[in-house]
Amino acid sequence: MDVIGLKNCDGTRRALRALTDAGIEHRFRDIRENPLSREEVSALLRDLGEAAINRRSTTWRGLDEAARTGDAADLILAHPTLMKRPVIFSGGRYGPGWGDGLQALLLGKGG
User: Which domain holds residue 38?
Assistant: First the structure.
């Protein structure tokens, strides 16, 4: 399982801590240090659609309208921090964020 995010992101840190505490083997990938490839971004968008883009981020708010309406893959490749974080990659699929549903699935908790 791969946890993809930013090392200084609170949600990413919560996910990493929860997985470690649950004894679930995982790897962490910081998207600033090791951005996703075009193929990975395409798969991310296939699995998550528009939910892959964090429209509440500082990066999003800093974009002009033309950039915001551009191709989603190009946008994430140019601005990796626009990706909603963390993203969990497991079983050949991407899962969004660290919400209750994903926590329940991965950690076997109700939520």
Answer: 2-107
**Calpha distance 86→29 (Å, rounded):** 10
Active-site entry in 9, 67, 73, 77: 9
Q: Is 60 a catalytic residue?
A: no
Q: Is the link from the previous residue into 96 a cis peptide, with omega within 30 of 0? A: no
The answer to whether residue 29 scores a pLDDT higher than 90 is yes
> Which residues does residue 89 pair with via DSSP β-bridges, in sequence order?
2, 94
Question: What is the pTM assigned to this prediction?
Answer: 0.85
H/E element, 27: strand 27-30
Q: What's the CATH number where 20 sits? A: 3.40.30.10
Domains: count for the chain: 1
Q: What was the pLDDT predicted at 109?
A: 60
Q: What is the mean pLDDT of residues 91-106?
A: 78
Contacts of 111 (CB under 8 A, 6+ apart): 100, 101, 103, 104
